[in-house]
Amino acid sequence: MKRTLLFLMVTVLFLSCSTYSHIDYDKTVSFSDIQSFSLDLPVDSPDRLRSTILTNNIEQNLTAKGLNKTEASQSDIAVSYFAVTSTKPSNTSFSIGLGTGFGGRSGGVSLGSIVSLPLGKQETIYQSLRIDIQQGDRVIWSGIDEIEIDSGNSIELQTKIDELVAKILASFPPTPES
User: How far apart are CA 174 and CA 141, in angstroms?
Assistant: First the structure.
């Protein structure tokens, strides 16, 4: 019983610390035949800086894999992405218990209170990214992941987005299963 409870607690701990990451692809497609790509830019991007960084990173990653960027009419695949920035509350605080008591040997009264003091920033900012690769009208590869960012620092933003795009595109093209 104790082992089961311990296993359950450790599993919940690992799952709560991990981020969501998912790669999926069509196993019937021969990815070795793909030589060129075109990049479809998002229509409504509220943050031009992030959009520019994402576009450049995706292009650089695919070019480094030996693919050539071409016009949409001449490309083997079309690459599109969807990015969302979200904030989640941080639960970082320090709690202090304060109390006092009075009374005699066999009885007494005590009063207490807990004070919680916030530490650091109160919101965590996440950049989620989905990259889809289409061949004709069907999606043949899709990757989704997210990363924690600090929007106040443009150098860190660039670095974090570089990591995110590289992490997603690391498994493209997929290796054939034997």
Answer: 9
- The 8-class DSSP code of residue 9 comes to H
Report the alpha-carbon distance of residue 3 to residue 9 in Å, rounded.
10
3-state secondary structure of 13: helix
Q: Which residues contact 174 (CB under 8 A, 6 or more apart)?
A: 23, 25, 31, 141
- Which amino acid is present at 12? V
* 116 vs 124: CA distance, rounded Å: 19
At which residue do the structure tokens 């289409």 appear?
Answer: 134
Q: What share of residues in the chain are helix, strand, coil (percent, to 5)?
A: 30, 40, 30
Angle at CA of residue 86, ends 142 and 169, nearest 5°: 25
CA distances from 122 to 35, 88, 118, 125 (A): 46, 9, 8, 10
Residue 85 contacts residue 79 (beta carbons within 8 Å): no
Model confidence pTM above 0.85: no
Instruction: Give the three-class secondary structure for 126.
Output: strand
Predicted confidence (pLDDT) per residue in 81-95, tens digit: 988 877 777 665 556
Report the distance separating Cα 118 and Cα 86, nearest Å: 21
